[in-house]
Write a structure and sequence with these properties.
The complex is a heterotrimer of chains A (388), B (397) and C (261).
Chain A lengths: L2 H9 L3 E2 L15 H9 L4 H27 L24 H13 L7 H19 L6 H21 L17 H26 L4 H16 L2 H15 L8 H27 L2 H10 L3 H16 L1 H14 L11 H9 L9 H33 L4
Helix pairs in contact in A: 4-14, 5-6, 7-8, 7-10, 8-10, 9-10, 10-12, 10-13, 11-12, 13-15, 14-15
Chain B lengths: L19 H34 L30 H34 L4 H15 L3 H13 L9 E3 L3 E4 L2 E4 L1 E4 L3 H29 L5 H20 L3 E4 L2 E2 L4 E2 L2 E3 L1 H28 L2 H9 L4 H31 L3 H4 L4 H13 L2 H30 L5
Helix pairs in contact in B: 2-3, 2-7, 2-11, 3-7, 4-7, 5-6, 7-9, 8-9, 9-12, 11-12
Chain C lengths: L19 E12 L2 E12 L3 E5 L6 H8 L7 E6 L2 E2 L4 H10 E4 L11 H11 L5 H14 L15 H13 L5 E5 L7 H16 L3 E5 L3 H7 L2 E6 L2 E6 L1 H6 L4 H10 L2
Parallel strand pairs in C: 3-8, 3-9, 6-7, 7-8
Antiparallel strand pairs in C: 1-2, 1-4, 4-5, 9-10
Helix pairs in contact in C: 3-4, 3-5, 4-5, 5-6
The chains are: A mainly alpha (388), B alpha+beta (397), C alpha/beta (261).
Chain lengths: 388, 397, 261
C-alpha cells in the first residue's frame, strides 16, 4: 500500500483496498530462541532472578543425581567392601552390586527357588490380562473382562498357593515377598474394588432405605478412617470374628483390609460417574422395557464407567501406592524387603540405604507414572470424541 | 350429569410377588436378616475366641497404669503414674500437633507451587510441574522412610553436630532449638503485642469506613505492620529484652538446654508437608484456572490493576473452587499422619493401637476407639465444609 | 465526501466532533508466526460510530482489544485521545480509564451484586466514596432500564439483562470511548433487541463507539462508517448506505452475500 493510498484511507469515509497485504514474518526480536527466552524467562527483574535461581538449583541437583546413580556408582563386587570409600575412590555413588545380588529377593521374597517359575507365569498372565483390557483395539474385550476379573484370580490363587492334587507344591504366603506381594496386593485391590465399588455405588443410589443406609454407613465409615486402622482392624479383628479353624493367614487379612478400603473409594468414583449420566438414559432404557439389572448392565454402567475411567485409574494409582502400608502389618511387600535388605550387615555402607530407596523409587515412579499417562491419554481421547 | 361420567378405572390387579413395593420390602427384609446373622455369628465367635485367649473385655483398661514411656509428650505423663487413658491423650495431642503444623506448611508450599505452575516463567512452571509429578507418584511411606533413614538418621553424631548460627544444632539425635525463657518485665511486652493487634484491627475497620465515605484508602498494610511488629519491637528494646533464649549447648555426651525436637517428628512433618503440598498445588492450580480469563480482562478493561484484580475478582472466585478439595487434602494429611507408626513417632496410632493394644490385648476396643477418633474428625470437617459450601454458593436462578 | 455527511445513516446526531478519539497507525500484530493484523490504519473522530464486520478469524476482535491493551501489538502506533498505548503501565491505566469495553460473554463478576459490579471500578480506580459511586451506578442502571435489579446477582438475570448490566458497568467509569466485542452474539434471539436498543440510545447521546458485530440492522441504523476486515486488513470502508447497496471489493460482495438474505 503506497503512502497516498494510506492517507486516503484515513481521510475519506469510503475506501477500497486494491492490493492485498501478504503476511510477513514477525520482527526478529519476537521469535526464535531469543524471543522465546525474553518473553518467558527474562521478562521482568523478578523473573530473571527466579530463572537464575532455578538454573543454579538444577545445575547442582542434576549432576549430583547422575553422579550418584552412574558416575560414582559401583557396578560390581561381592560385599560391602566394594562399596566403601577408598583412597583411590573417595566419592561413592550407588551400590549396584547390592541390588544385583538381592534382586531375586526383591522380586520373589522367600518364595522357594525351584517354584519361582510359577510366579513368572503369574506375572505373564497378569500382563496379558492388563494389555487385553487396556489396548483399545484388542479383540473381544468383554472376554478380556471375564478373564481378568474371574479366570485370572482363580488360576493365580491356585498357581501361587499351590494345590498338591495337581502337583503344585503348596507355598505358604509367609514366604511371599517383594514385587510379587506388591503386585498381588495391588491386583486383588484392583480386581475386587471395582465390582464391590459398583455394588456399593448402586446401593447408595438405591431407593430402598435399608440398602441406602447400609451403603452410606459403610462408605463414610471406611473413608473416614486411615488405611492403617482398617489394616489393623482386619489384622486383629478378623481372626476374632471367625471360628478358629478358618483363621485367615496374615496376607489374606491384609488383602481383605485393602479390598474393603479400595471399594469404598471406588464406590464414590463410580457414583460420580452414575450421576453424570443424564436421566434420559435411564428413562430410555426403562421405556424399552429393560429391567433394573439389564438397564444397569447394558446401558448405564458402560457409559458411567467410560466417563470416569480417568478417575478410576487415579484411584488405582493411589491404591498402588497404598499397598506399601501392608509393610506396617508385617507383610513383606517390596518396601519391606528393601528395608530388611538395607540393614543387612553384609552390605552395610553409607550408601546402601539410598541405593535401596532409589530402586523402590524407580519401581513406583515407573508404574504410577505409566498409569497416569494412560489416564491422561484416555481423558484426551474421551474429550476429543465429544463425550463429557 | 353424574351418570355420564365413566366409572373410575380400578387399579390393575398385580400378583403380589411382582409388585415393586412388595419386592422392595422383601429385599430389604432379607438384607437385614443376613446382616443380623453375620453380626451375630461374628460376635459369638469373638466372644469364644477372646475367652479362650483370656483377654478381658470392656473399657476397664483405660484406668490401668501404662507402664511404658513415650518419647514426646505435650502434657504431663510418666510411665509409673499415668494410665492408658492418659497415653491415649498424649498420642492424640501428638497427632494433632503434627497434623496442624503439617497443614500449615503444606498449604504454604502448595500455594506457592500451584501458583508457580501457572507462571509465565517457563522454567519455574516446569520445575513446579516436575515436583508435583515426582512427589505424587511416590508412595508416602517411601518418602517418610527416605526422610527418616536416609536424611535424618544420616546426620552426624553428637560430637560432629551441625551448628547453625542463631542457636540451631542438628545431629542424628534430633533438632535442638533455642527455648524462649520469660524473664521479668515481660508484662509490658505482652501488653504491647495486644495493643498492637487490637490497634491494627481497629485501624482496619476505621479505614474501611473512611474509604466508603470519602473514597480514599488509608495505608492499611503499612500501619498494620507498624503496630503489630514495630510497636512490640520498640517496647522490647526499651524495657530491656525481657525474653531471653536458652540456647542449646553441645556438651561431650549431651546437649543441655534448648528445645529438643525428635527426628521422628521432623521426618514425619517434612514427609507429610511435601507430599500433601504436591496435591494442594494441583487443587490451587485447578481453582485459579477455573476462573475464566474474561473475568480479569473485564477487570483490566475497567482500569483495575493486576493486584486489586487478583484480590477482588480472581481469588474470591478461585477460593470457592479450591476450598472443598483443599479440606479433603487436609483430612488426608491428618489420616496419613498415622504412618507415624512406621518410623516410631508416638502419634495416636503408634501409642494406642500399637503399644496399648499389645499390652492389653484388647484389640476390638482399642481399634474401635482409634477409628472413632478419626471418624469424628472426618465427619466434623465434612459438616463444616458442607455448611461453608452452602453459604458460599453463587446465587443463581 | 464531507465528514459530516452521513448519507445512508438513519441517525443524524449533532455532528461529529473534530478531535481524534482513536488513531491506529500502521498497526501490525503477530501471534507467533501468524500475521494477525496487517498494516491497519484508522482514524476515529469523537462521537463517531464505527461498525466492524468480517469473517471469523479476520482480526476484528484482536484489533479493538489492542486499543485498551488487552492484546499487545508489535509494530505501529495506537493513540487514544492523544495518549499513546505502549507497555508503559501509567499510560495503560490512563487509556483504560477512558475506554470502556463490553464483551461477548458479558464477564460480569458472579460473586458481586449488580450494584457492586458497577461500583467496583469507581471505588477502587477513581477513588469515589461509596455513596457517590452507588448514585452513579443507579443512574446508569436506570439508563439501561433495569434499576430494579440492583441487588440481584448476575446468575439471577437473563442474558439480555446481564449484557445491559455490563454496559452500565462500563459506563459508570464515564469513558469517552466504548468498545463492543460482538455484544449480542451470545444472546438468545429475543434478547438481542433490548441490548441493541440500549446501544442505539447510547449512540444517540453522542458516545464514540467501535462495535464488532454481525447485526447489520444496527449498522444501518446507527453507524457512521462500516469497516469490513478480512485476513487481518481493512478491505473496504464506506457509509452504510453505499456499503450495503454498492460493495466494491470482491471479498466484501462475497461476505455480504453470505450474511444477508
Amino acid at each position: 500500500m503506497t503512502m497516498a493510498e494510506g492517507d486516503l484511507a484515513v481521510a475519506e469515509m469510503a475506501f477500497v483496498r486494491r492490493a492485498t497485504i501478504e503476511p510477513r514474518p514477525p520482527p526478529a526480536a519476537m521469535t526464535g530462541a531469543i524471543g522465546w527466552l525474553r518473553a518467558n524467562l527474562l521478562s521482568t527483574p523478578f523473573n530473571i532472578a527466579l530463572t537464575v535461581l532455578i538454573v543454579l538449583l538444577l545445575a547442582w541437583a542434576i549432576p549430583e543425581i547422575v553422579r550418584f546413580l552412574v558416575i560414582d556408582a559401583v557396578w560390581s563386587g561381592n560385599d560391602r567392601d566394594a562399596c566403601l570409600w577408598t583412597v583411590q575412590h573417595r566419592e561413592i555413588g550407588a551400590c549396584w552390586p547390592f541390588v544385583w545380588e538381592r534382586l531375586p529377593y526383591f522380586i520373589y521374597g522367600s518364595y522357594p527357588i525351584p517354584q519361582r517359575w510359577r510366579v513368572d507365569v503369574f506375572f505373564l498372565m497378569l500382563a496379558v490380562g492388563v494389555v487385553w483390557l487396556l489396548w483399545l483395539k484388542a479383540p473381544r474385550r468383554d472376554l478380556g473382562a471375564v478373564y481378568f476379573f474371574i479366570v485370572l484370580p482363580v488360576v493365580s490363587y491356585i498357581l501361587l498357593t499351590g494345590w498338591s492334587r495337581i502337583g503344585l507344591e503348596p507355598v505358604d504366603s509367609v514366604l511371599w515377598g517383594g514385587v510379587l506381594v506388591t503386585i498381588v496386593v495391588a491386583s486383588v485391590g484392583i480386581v475386587f474394588s471395582l465390582p464391590l465399588g459398583i455394588i456399593l455405588a448402586l446401593g447408595r443410589r438405591s431407593r430402598m432405605p435399608v440398602v441406602r443406609t447400609l451403603s452410606v454407613i459403610f462408605i463414610e465409615f471406611v473413608r473416614g478412617v486411615p488405611l492403617i486402622t482398617v489394616l489393623f482392624m482386619a489384622g486383629v479383628m478378623l481372626p476374632l470374628f471367625v471360628p478358629e479353624q478358618y483363621s485367615p493367614d496374615k496376607l489374606v487379612r491384609a488383602l481383605v483390609g485393602i479390598a474393603i478400603f479400595a471399594s469404598a473409594y471406588m464406590a464414590e468414583v463410580v457414583r460420580a460417574g452414575l450421576q453424570a449420566i443424564p436421566r434420559g438414559q435411564y428413562e430410555g432404557a426403562m421405556a424399552v422395557g429393560l429391567g433394573y439389572a439389564q438397564m444397569m448392565r447394558l446401558v448405564v454402567l458402560p457409559q458411567a464407567l467410560t466417563v470416569t475411567i480417568p478417575n478410576i485409574v487415579n484411584t488405582y494409582i493411589g491404591l498402588f501406592k497404598d499397598t506399601t502400608l501392608v509393610f506396617i502389618v508385617g507383610i513383606f511387600d517390596l518396601l519391606r524387603t528393601i528395608e530388611v535388605a538395607r540393614i543387612d550387615p553384609k552390605w552395610a555402607t553409607p550408601v546402601t540405604s539410598t541405593t535401596g530407596y532409589a530402586v523402590a523409587a524407580i519401581f513406583y515412579v515407573v508404574f504410577c507414572y505409566g498409569m497416569s499417562r494412560y489416564a491422561r491419554a484416555t481423558e484426551a481421547r474421551l474429550a476429543k470424541s465429544g463425550r463429557r | 350429569m353424574p351418570s355420564d361420567l365413566p366409572a373410575q378405572p380400578r387399579p390393575a390387579r398385580v400378583v403380589f410377588y411382582n409388585d415393586p413395593k412388595v419386592r422392595s420390602i422383601a429385599y430389604q427384609f432379607a438384607l437385614c436378616v443376613v446382616v443380623a446373622l453375620l453380626v451375630y455369628g461374628a460376635a459369638r465367635n469373638a466372644i469364644d475366641n477372646l475367652a479362650r485367649a483370656q483377654i478381658a473385655s470392656g473399657f476397664g483398661f483405660w484406668n490401668q497404669t501404662a507402664g511404658f514411656d513415650i518419647s514426646q509428650t505435650l502434657i504431663e505423663y510418666s510411665s509409673r503414674g499415668s494410665t492408658y487413658g492418659r497415653a491415649f491423650w498424649v498420642g492424640l495431642l501428638n497427632t494433632l500437633l503434627v497434623a496442624v503444623l503439617g497443614i500449615v506448611f503444606a498449604t504454604i508450599i502448595g500455594f506457592i507451587v500451584g501458583i508457580s505452575r501457572l507462571s509465565n516463567n517457563w522454567l519455574l512452571a516446569k520445575a513446579a510441574g516436575g515436583y508435583v509429578e515426582i512427589i505424587r507418584n511416590l508412595p508416602l511411606l517411601l518418602q517418610l522412610l527416605f526422610w527418616y533413614n536416609a536424611v535424618l538418621k544420616a546426620l552426624p553424631d553428637l560430637r560432629d553436630s551441625i551448628i547453625i548460627p542463631g542457636g540451631l544444632i542438628l545431629n542424628n539425635r534430633g533438632f535442638f532449638l533455642p527455648l524462649p525463657v520469660l524473664k521479668g518485665g515481660v508484662g509490658f511486652f505482652e501488653l504491647s503485642l495486644l495493643v498492637g493487634v487490637v490497634g491494627a484491627l481497629a485501624f482496619y475497620v476505621w479505614a474501611r469506613g473512611r474509604q466508603e465515605r470519602t473514597g480514599q484508602r488509608p495505608p492499611v498494610l503499612l500501619v498494620t505492620l507498624l503496630l503489630v511488629v514495630g510497636l512490640p519491637l520498640a517496647v522490647f528494646a526499651m524495657v530491656g529484652r525481657p525474653i531471653g533464649f536458652e540456647f542449646p549447648q553441645a556438651g561431650r555426651f549431651n546437649i543441655a538446654g534448648g528445645i529438643e525436637v525428635l527426628p521422628e517428628f521432623v521426618a514425619l512433618l517434612f514427609g507429610l508437608s511435601i507430599y500433601t503440598a504436591a496435591f494442594i498445588a494441583e487443587v490451587v492450580r485447578a481453582g485459579i484456572l477455573a476462573v475464566s480469563r474474561g473475568q480479569s480482562e473485564a477487570a483490566y478493561s475497567l482500569g483495575l490493576r493486576p493486584g486489586p484484580t487478583l484480590r477482588l475478582i480472581v481469588v474470591p472466585q478461585a477460593m470457592r473452587v479450591i476450598i472443598p478439595p483443599l479440606t479433603s487434602q487436609y483430612l488426608n494429611l491428618t489420616k496419613n499422619s498415622s504412618l507415624a507408626v512406621a518410623i516410631g513417632y508416638p502419634d495416636l496410632v503408634q501409642v494406642f493401637t500399637g503399644t496399648v493394644l499389645n499390652q492389653t490385648g484388647q484389640a476390638v476396643e482399642v481399634v474401635a476407639i482409634t477409628m472413632l477418633v478419626y471418624l469424628v474428625i472426618s465427619l466434623a470437617t465434612s459438616m463444616i465444609m458442607n455448611f461453608y459450601n452452602r453459604r458460599m454458593a453463587l446465587v443463581e436462578r | 465526501m464531507s465528514a459530516d455527511n452521513n448519507s445512508g445513516s438513519l441517525l443524524k446526531p449533532a455532528g461529529l466532533r473534530t478531535e481524534v478519539a482513536v488513531e491506529l497507525i500502521a498497526l501490525n500484530k503477530w501471534y507467533g508466526d501468524f500475521h494477525v493484523l496487517r498494516d491497519i490504519n484508522l482514524k476515529v473522530r469523537g462521537g463517531e460510530r464505527i461498525v466492524i464486520c468480517g469473517p471469523s478469524g479476520s482480526g476484528k476482535s484482536t484489533m479493538i482489544r489492542c486499543i485498551n491493551r488487552l492484546e499487545e501489538h508489535q509494530s505501529g502506533q495506537i493513540f487514544v485521545d492523544g495518549v499513546e498505548v505502549t507497555a508503559d503501565l501509567k499510560k495503560i491505566d490512563e487509556v483504560r480509564r477512558e475506554v470502556g469495553m463490553v464483551f461477548q460473554h458479558f464477564n460480569l463478576f458472579p460473586h458481586l451484586t449488580v450494584l457492586e459490579n458497577c461500583t467496583l471500578a469507581p471505588i477502587w480506580v477513581r477513588k469515589m466514596p461509596k455513596g457517590e459511586a452507588e448514585d452513579v451506578a443507579r443512574h446508569y442502571l436506570t439508563r439501561v432500564k433495569i434499576p430494579e435489579q440492583a441487588n440481584k446477582y448476575p446468575g439471577q438475570l437473563s442474558g439480555g439483562q446481564q449484557q445491559r448490566v455490563a454496559i452500565a458497568r462500563a459506563l459508570c467509569m464515564n469513558p469517552k470511548i466504548m468498545l463492543f466485542d460482538e455484544p449480542t452474539s451470545a444472546l438468545d434471539p429475543e434478547m438481542v433487541k433490548e441490548v441493541l436498543e440500549t446501544m442505539v440510545a447510547l449512540a444517540h447521546d453522542g458516545m464514540t463507539m467501535l462495535v464488532v458485530t454481525h447485526e447489520m440492522g444496527f449498522a444501518r441504523q446507527v453507524a457512521n462508517r462500516i469497516l469490513f476486515m478480512d485476513e487481518g486488513q481493512i478491505v473496504e470502508t464506506n457509509v452504510p448506505g453505499e456499503f450495503f447497496a454498492h460493495p466494491q471489493h470482491e471479498r466484501t460482495k462475497l461476505f455480504l452475500g453470505q450474511i444477508l438474505r
